[in-house]
Specification:
- A six-stranded antiparallel β-barrel has the order 3-12-15-14-13-16. It has a four-stranded antiparallel beta sheet with strand order 4-11-9-6, with no helix packed on it. Strands 8-7-5-10 form a four-stranded antiparallel beta sheet, with no helix packed on it.
- With 357 residues, the chain is of the alpha+beta class.
- It contains four helices and 21 strands.
- Helix content is 27%, strand content 39%.
- A hairpin with a 2-residue loop joins β13 and β14.
C-alpha cells in the first residue's frame, strides 16, 4: 500500500524523535545518570591493604619561623695595589680572576727613571764626600797655622764651619741615596697575601701615580656573608650569634661579627655581616641565604617519610580502625626528619610512615 504524503511526513517525524530520544538516553548513561550517585564533598579512597606498617601521630608544635635573607659572599681582606712613586707601567703580570700567592709579582714599573735618580743620588754623595774631605783638610791646616800664630781666630772659625757644613751635606747625600735605593725597589709590585685579582684598573703604558690603585685583589681564605635584614628581625640579633648560611645546596655555620648601628632609611633594613666557617667551599661574589629564626607559629608535623609524592600531588596513608585510607595533603617546610603539613590533616591522626614513594 502506498502511503500518502501526510503519512510519510508523520513517519519521518516519529523517526527523528526516536533518534533524538536515543541520543539523550546515551548521554545520560555516559554521565552516570543510571548509576548510584555519590554525595558531594571529599571522599577518601580506601585501599585494599588492611595491615598498616609503622605509624606516627600528627603532632602540633610551636616552632620557629625561619626566614632566609638574600646575601652575598664577600672577602674580609681586600687590597688596592698602588705604586709609591710616579712611574710608567711596563708590564701587568696578572689579569682579573687570576689566583696569586703572597710575594708573587703583579706589576712591573719602568725602572729606568728610578735607577737614574739612584745614580744621581750616589753621584751627589760622592761629590759631597769629596768636598767634605777638602774642607776637613783646610780646617786641619788652619788649625796648625793658628797654633803657630800664623792665622787669626776668625780664619780658623771660618774653615772649621766650612768643614762642618760639608760633613752635613755628606750626611744629607747619604740619606738621599738610602731613599733612592728604597724607591728603586718599588719598581716591582708584589702580592701582599694569597688571594685572587678581582679588578685591573690600569694597563701597560699608563702612568702610575702614588696612591692611585693599579689593581685590586682579595683573600679567599677569610670570607663572610653580608645581608640586609629587615629591622623588625634584626633587633633580635647579637654579636657572635651563630646562624646558618645556605650556599647552593649546602649549609654552613656563620657567626655574626658586625651589625650596622643604624638601619637604612630607604629600605628599613640593617646590614649584617657574618663570618663563614673556614671550611666553607665558596667564592667571593657568590649568592647566599642567611637563615634566621624570627617569630614562632603552631605547626602540624609528621615524619617526612610519611608523605607520598605522585607528580604534583602529595598524600599520606591514614591508619583508621585498622585499615589504611589515602588522604591528599599539602606540605610546607621541612624541619630535619619532620615536615610541616599545611592542610589535609588534624592533630592526633595517625599516619603510616615508610610507605610507597
Amino acid at each position: 500500500m502506498k502511503m500518502t504524503h501526510s503519512e510519510q511526513s508523520t513517519h519521518k517525524l516519529y523517526a527523528a524523535l526516536g533518534s533524538l530520544a536515543g541520543l539523550i538516553l546515551l548521554l545520560v548513561w555516559m554521565a552516570g545518570g543510571f548509576g548510584s550517585k555519590t554525595p558531594p564533598g571529599v571522599t577518601q579512597a580506601t585501599e585494599p591493604a588492611a595491615v598498616p606498617g609503622p605509624t606516627a601521630r600528627v603532632e602540633l608544635r610551636e616552632i620557629d619561623d625561619v626566614r632566609a635573607w638574600p646575601g652575598t659572599v664577600s672577602a674580609r681582606t681586600v687590597a688596592q695595589i698602588a705604586a709609591k712613586v710616579p712611574a710608567r707601567i711596563q708590564e701587568m703580570a696578572v689579569k682579573a680572576g687570576d689566583a696569586v700567592t703572597a710575594g708573587q709579582i703583579l706589576v712591573r714599573l719602568d725602572e729606568r727613571e728610578l735607577q737614574a735618580k739612584l745614580n744621581q743620588a750616589r753621584a751627589s754623595q760622592t761629590a759631597a764626600e769629596a768636598q767634605a774631605g777638602s774642607a776637613g783638610a783646610d780646617a786641619r791646616r788652619m788649625q796648625n797655622l793658628f797654633e803657630r800664630e800664623a792665622a787669626t781666630r776668625q780664619m780658623l772659625d771660618s774653615t772649621q764651619a766650612a768643614a762642618r757644613s760639608a760633613a752635613a751635606r755628606v750626611a744629607e747625600a747619604r740619606a738621599a741615596v738610602v731613599a733612592a735605593e728604597s724607591v728603586a725597589g718599588e719598581g716591582v709590585l708584589k702580592a701582599p697575601f694569597d688571594g685572587a685579582v678581582i679588578q685591573r684598573l690600569m694597563e701597560p703604558g699608563d702612568m702610575a701615580l702614588p696612591g692611585q690603585a693599579i689593581l685590586a685583589m682579595q683573600s679567599s681564605q677569610r670570607l663572610r656573608v653580608e645581608a640586609a635584614i629587615p629591622e623588625s628581625c634584626a633587633g633580635t640579633l647579637e654579636m657572635g650569634q651563630q646562624l646558618s648560611v645556605r650556599i647552593g645546596e649546602k649549609r654552613h655555620p656563620a657567626a655574626i661579627e658586625e651589625i650596622a648601628p643604624a638601619a637604612d632609611v630607604e629600605t628599613r633594613t640593617v646590614l649584617v655581616k657574618a663570618a663563614l666557617d673556614p671550611q666553607a667551599d665558596a667564592q667571593p661574589g657568590t649568592f647566599a641565604s642567611l637563615e634566621q629564626a624570627c617569630g614562632r607559629h603552631q605547626a602540624l608535623l609528621i615524619p617526612a617519610s610519611a608523605v607520598i609524592r605522585t607528580g604534583q600531588l602529595e598524600s599520606v596513608r591514614l591508619a583508621v580502625d585498622g585499615r589504611i585510607r589515602l588522604r591528599h595533603v599539602r606540605s610546607g617546610k621541612a624541619y630535619g626528619d619532620l615536615v610541616e603539613i599545611l592542610s589535609g590533616l588534624r592533630e592526633g591522626e595517625v599516619v603510616v610512615t615508610g610507605g610507597t614513594k
